[in-house]
Amino acid sequence: MEDRKSDVYFREKITKMKKSLGKGIGTSILALILMLSMSSVGLAVGKGDKGPDVYVIQGMLKELGSYSGGITGYYDSVTVRGG
Length: 83
Known about the structure:
71% helix, 83 residues, rod-shaped
């Protein structure tokens, strides 16, 4: 009888461990996918870049009064210092 109880206990423990491991692996995979998909966003704008993202940044800075240069779409030294 005692052996049977310990068998059930260990089976339940193993089942819980498997579920926990599965959740951990799933969470890790999701985090990796999110990090890889966002890598281009983190590098989207920097000195020397150009494009629509820079237009938006320059326009927002101009609205805030922090940028007096032209909205060129080119992230240069004028954009860095605020025009």
